[in-house]
Amino acid sequence: MTLNYLDLDVAALPAAATPAGTGDELDVVLRRLAPFEVISFDIFETLLRREGVFRPIDLFLTIGEKAGPLLGLSAAEFARLRMRGERDARCALEARHGHEVALAEMYGRMNALLPTQGRPSVSQAALAEAQRLEQEIELEHLRPVPSVEPIYHWAVNAGKRVVLVSDFYSSADFINKALARNGYEGHERLFVSCDVDHTKHHGDLYAHVCEEMGVTPRQIAHVGDNPWSDGSRALQSGITHLRIANPAGRLVGRWRIDWRSPSPQPSSAVFAGVADDLFGSGIAPREPEDLPVLQRVGREALGPLLFGLAGWLHEEAQANETPVLHFCSRDGLIMKRAFDLFRGRFGTKTDSRYLMVSRQAIYRARAVSEPEAAAALFAQNWARLTPADALARWGLDPQEFEVEIRAAGFSSPQDVVAIGDRAGAGRFAKLFEACRTALQAANQAHADLFADYLTQEGVIGAQAVTLVDIGWHGSLQKGLGEVLCARGWRGHLAGRYLGLFLDRAALSGFDAAGYLFSLDGTPRAQALRKSPSLVELLHTAGHGSTAGYRRDGDGIVAVCEERADEERQHTEAIGPIQEAALSFVEEMLANPRVGPGALDPADAFRGLDRLLGRPSPDEVEVIGRLRIAANYGATATSTALTDRSPEGYRLWNT
Question: Whole-model pTM?
Answer without folding.
Answer: 0.88
